[in-house]
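Progress note, sequence design subtask.
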């Protein structure tokens, strides 16, 4: 009889060690190594594959299934790929289970068989939620189970077209001497589910919890194993949700889908620009509008700022939706290149609508919003600002400027402040006056 193998794994990073140590040698965290007992598994039927010449591989073998929710299909890269392994993460109550139930409803209407494995809610609880969302379909099978071996038996019995696991942290294997949700259990369960997805060519969706820092709970290898990582962004108490593809082997990473949470579930937002801005700006100081690109989508957003004299020895910096380090850089450029004193002021920055933007094209609009609030001067009405700012105060060019300006013009904007180098390759946009600037000093002249 084979002996049990013992090892110690870090509950933070998943690193393995043959003996216990107070400090993890991989991530440096203290008292995170826990003992894991590995029981030998019974031998299964081995799959034998052969090398295939690259030129003989047929791309037509890859099929995509549209689920009927356009925003979800967009994020997935055009639809659900057969044999794909998809991880859906997000804060509690943000809509992970809701979007999976709505997807199941749409696919059942197409005649597909769905196995929904619920490890955290009973079948009755799922039925109550489904009734509220209007979910129907004879092809939807709910299985309230957490034992991996039993789930595999039901997959072999039902032979579903799609499998949904809610959630992967609740499922465990009896072959692992570790509690559910531990690093070793999550990694083992993910490996077994990936074998089902690739071996049986069945799309598998798994819902993952997140930590207090916003990372998907479990070992980082979980995100490397899956084909696609979808992450819900936004405030769970707010109305709007952004579903972002942070990784996608079958489509562009960074693509987002926008939803609105209502009583009947998540409803698609066809025109995101309409929810991220109100009016055309220029109503009060401290506001600027920019055109951003997320994946293949272009939309305009409003950047709001509030600069007030501080009452503390150290001024406060608050940022919502913008990287704080980027704000610090722009404040330093503003003091050095524009002679606007910001070291004695509290600064609050917010992107309306709850979206997060990291691209450098945000710099110019953020700079103008900060300067507008600090000087108490507003931007001209219906003006959009797009550009990257360097440390010397120069305004640098950004990509896909034509697409940004077309979206701004569609939303009714009549003026655009852009970097001068972008004008050489710019196509004329009817009804939009272009103001090109070389540096931040020229941009500040636009303020009223």
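Output:
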């Amino acid at each position: 009889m084979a002996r049990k193998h013992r090892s110690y794994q870090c509950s933070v990073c998943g690193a393995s060690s043959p003996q216990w140590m107070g400090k993890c040698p991989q991530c440096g965290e203290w008292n995170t190594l826990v003992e894991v007992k590995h029981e030998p598994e019974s031998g299964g039927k081995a799959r034998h594959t052969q090398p295939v010449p690259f030129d003989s591989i047929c791309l037509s073998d890859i099929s995509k299934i549209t689920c009927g929710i356009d925003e979800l299909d967009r994020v997935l890269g055009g639809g659900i790929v057969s044999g794909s392994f998809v991880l859906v993460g997000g804060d509690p109550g943000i809509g992970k289970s809701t979007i999976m139930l709505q997807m199941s409803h749409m696919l059942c209407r197409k005649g597909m068989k769905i196995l929904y494995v619920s490890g955290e809610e009973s079948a009755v609880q799922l039925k109550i939620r489904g009734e509220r969302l209007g979910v129907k379909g004879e092809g939807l099978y709910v299985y309230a189970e957490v034992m991996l071996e039993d789930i595999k038996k039901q997959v072999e019995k039902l032979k579903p077209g799609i499998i949904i696991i809610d959630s992967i942290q609740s499922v465990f294997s009896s072959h692992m001497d570790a509690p559910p949700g531990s690093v070793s259990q999550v990694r083992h369960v993910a490996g077994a589910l990936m074998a089902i997805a690739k071996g049986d060519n069945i799309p598998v969706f798994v819902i993952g919890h997140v930590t207090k820092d916003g990372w998907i709970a479990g070992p980082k290898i979980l995100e490397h194993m899956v084909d696609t990582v979808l992450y819900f962004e936004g405030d769970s108490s707010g109305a709007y949700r952004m579903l972002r593809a942070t990784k996608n082997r079958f489509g562009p990473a960074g693509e987002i889908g926008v939803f609105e949470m209502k009583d009947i579930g998540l409803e698609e937002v066809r025109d995101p620009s309409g929810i991220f801005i109100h009016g055309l700006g220029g109503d009060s100081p401290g506001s600027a509008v920019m055109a951003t690109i997320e994946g293949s989508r272009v939309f305009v957003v409003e950047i709001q700022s509030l600069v007030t004299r501080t009452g503390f020895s150290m001024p406060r910096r608050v940022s919502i939706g913008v990287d704080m380090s980027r704000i610090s850089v722009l404040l330093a450029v503003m003091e050095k290149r524009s002679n606007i004193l910001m070291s004695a002021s509290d600064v609050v920055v917010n992107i309306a609508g709850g979206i997060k933007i990291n691209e450098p094209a945000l710099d110019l609009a953020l700079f103008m919003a900060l300067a507008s609030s600090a000087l108490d001067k507003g931007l001209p009405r219906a003006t959009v600002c797009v550009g990257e700012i360097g440390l010397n105060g120069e305004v640098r060019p950004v990509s896909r400027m034509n697409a940004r300006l077309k979206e701004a013009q569609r939303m009714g904007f009549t003026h655009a402040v852009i970097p001068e180098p972008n004008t050489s390759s710019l196509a004329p946009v009817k009804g939009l006056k272009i103001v090109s600037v070389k540096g931040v000093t020229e941009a500040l002249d636009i303020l009223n």
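Residues 183-200 form the longest helix (18 residues). Work on this subtask will continue into the next period as scheduled.
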